[in-house]
C-alpha cells in the first residue's frame, strides 16, 4: 500500500485505493483522498455515516486486527491499507492459536475463523473447553462470542473418520480409495465383495475398490460390505416371481445383488429380501425383510416393513411401534409401523420400492443412534 501511495503522491494524484471488507471478509477496493485518514473518514469512505456506529479494524501485515477509534489517525504511507469495517456497537475478542483478534460481530463461522487466522485446509479448528472435550468447528458451524471471557480456538492436524462395516478408521486426508479404506480396516480386498457407500438421507450406492471417497461429504454414514457368495457349482433354485415390480425396482434390486422374490400368500402381495444387512446394535446381523406391495402400487403406498427373525436391540431396550404381525412362508414376521409424515407423504410419481428401502434403513439406524 505504501509504495502505491507514494507513487500516487509523486504523480500529484489526490485519490488512493484501500481494501475494505465486511463481516464476510470479502474485500473490495474503494477510493480515499487522504493518506492520513481518521477512523471516521475510513468509515465514511466505506459508505457509513454517523450515527451508523461503524467499527473500523485495520488488518496488519501479520493478519492481526487492530481497532481504530473514530478520531484516531492512520498513516497509510507506512502501514497496510486493508480494513474490516462493520456496523456494530462493540467488539468481541477471540484467540486463534494464542493470537488475539478483535471481531465486530457477535457470531462468527468456522469459515471466517479459517480466513481470519489463515488456517490451512489440512488443519481442523477447535473451540477450547475446560470441562468438556474441545468442540470441532466446521466451516459452516457458528460460534456465539457473547459470553464471559475470551473465546479461544486452537488448530490441529485434521483427521477424518470413516466407518468401514463397523470398524472406524482415522484418515489424515479428505479423500481415500475404497481399497485403502478396507485394507486399513483389516478387510481382505483380494476376496470378492459387494461394496456400498451410504450417506444419510440418500439411497446407498454401489462402489468398487478404485472408487475415491470424499470424506468431506456431509452425512457420511459408512462403507458397507457383503461377501459375494461362492457356490459349489450347483444351480440355485430360481427365485419366485409371483408378480412383477416396477422396472426401476427390479433394476435396483438386481444392481445391489440382493436375493429377492415376490410371493402372494393369503391374497397379500409381498416382496421378500433375504439376508438383508442390519446395522450394528441389533441381536442379529441379517434378517429376511418383507414389504407388502398393495395391488394399487405405486398409486397405493407401501406401509412400514416386516422382518424375520424379529429385530431386537442388543441393549434390550424395547422398540416402539413394532406390533404388526404377518405369516409368510410358515413363520411369523414382526412388522414396524413407520409413517412418512405430513411433510413428505407418499408420492406415486417419485416413491417406489427404492425410497421405501431408504425409509427402512433410516428407521433401523435411528433406533441404534448411528
Name the overall outline.
elongated
* Gap between N and C termini: 53 Å
Main beta sheet: strand number and arrangement? Answer: 6 strands, antiparallel
Oligomer: single chain
Tally of DSSP helical segments = 6
- Calculate the mean pLDDT score and round it: 85
Helix content: 10-25%
Low-pLDDT runs: 8-13
Number of strands: 25
Strand content: 35-45%
Strands in their spatial order, largest beta sheet: 20-21-22-23-25-24
Q: Gyration radius, to the nearest Å?
A: 30 Å
Structural class: alpha+beta
General description of the model:
With 370 residues, this protein is of the alpha+beta class. It is 15% helix and 36% strand. It contains six helices and 25 strands. The strands form seven sheets. It has a six-stranded antiparallel sheet, with no helix packed on it. It has a five-stranded mixed sheet with strand order 2-1-5-3-4, sandwiched between helices. A five-stranded mixed sheet has the order 7-6-12-9-10, covered by helices on one side. A hairpin with a 5-residue loop joins strand 16 (193-199) and strand 17 (205-207). The longest helix has 16 residues, at 353-368. The radius of gyration is 30 Å and the shape is elongated. Residues 8-13 have low confidence and may be disordered.
